[in-house]
Amino acid sequence: MPIDPSVAVGAELGQTSFSWESSDVLLYHLGIGAGADPLDSRELRYAYEKDLRVLPTFATVAATMRASEPPRVSFPGIEIDLAKVVHGSQSVTAHRPLPVAGKATASSRITDVFDKGKAAVIVQETDVTSEDGEPLWTAQSRIFARGEGGFGGDRGPSERIDLPDREPDVTVSTATLPQQALLYRLCGDRNPLHADPDFAQAAGFDQPILHGLCTYGVVAKAVTDAVLDGDPTLVRSWSARFAGIVLPGETLRTKIWELDGKFIVSTESVERSAPVLADAVLQRV
């Protein structure tokens, strides 16, 4: 059985120690499209070490920046073919501004496994602390394993967030590059779904698609630039559900509503008029 919830739920996945340098942060920021205007001082906060500030979504790659092998979905009670897996949702909460370089320890666990009928949803949570034991960030990811549901488990809670019944306060268009996935995969995600046309077709896609976490970072940056004057240190948390794929080279249209001190976000592909991110919320410090 690929998934055994009785074994998986609550399983501790151990601790991982890792480090990063400013060059890792710079590469990540370039991978999500920073530096498009190299004369813009706000862009240089992401792309030049002189006044480098770290977008909290860097947390999603900090521990795996130097990975050179495709990831595996292999945990206690869980063994799934990578071709069946898509990212469901992601959240990152920064407990303080992320340092441009540092050493840290990540502690991960499986907190839930949900049964969506045709798919299973695996919820993983990770707490990261600095060398001196201070909390840096907490991340939660949900991955969909297609064809692995139907085991009689709980469907899990709804993550739906209703959009305000009015025009957005801000709308932003962000272009992605045709080679965006090839660049972003250097941040440690070597899943061939994002580079190999044959693998992508075998997984049911017409062509390689952009990493969900790349889209997650691209949109986080777009919102930060639009409503926080391009200062990523003001981002407290960012969460989003992956509602559809992005093809490298597409333009993203992001709608932003300010509501009760937070920003509600929805993103779609301009070319396909198709949803990309939904139920997304950015909270500021």
TrEMBL record:
Positions of the MaoC-like domain: 164-272
Single GO molecular function: 17-beta-hydroxysteroid dehydrogenase (NAD+) activity
Matching SUPFAM superfamilies: Thioesterase/thiol ester dehydrase-isomerase (SSF54637)
Gene3D superfamilies: Hotdog Thioesterase
Superkingdom assignment: Bacteria
Residue span(s) of domain Peroxisomal multifunctional enzyme type 2-like N-terminal: 18-147
GO biological process, one term: fatty acid beta-oxidation
Biased composition, class Basic and acidic residues, residue ranges: 156-167
Disordered: annotated segments: 148-167
Coiled-coil features, chain-numbered ranges: none
InterPro entries tied to this protein: HotDog_dom_sf, MaoC-like_dom, MFE-2_N
Record Pfam families: MaoC_dehydratas (PF01575), MFE-2_hydrat-2_N (PF22622)
Family label: Belongs to the enoyl-CoA hydratase/isomerase family.
Name of this protein: 3-alpha,7-alpha,12-alpha-trihydroxy-5-beta-chole st-24-enoyl-CoAhydratase
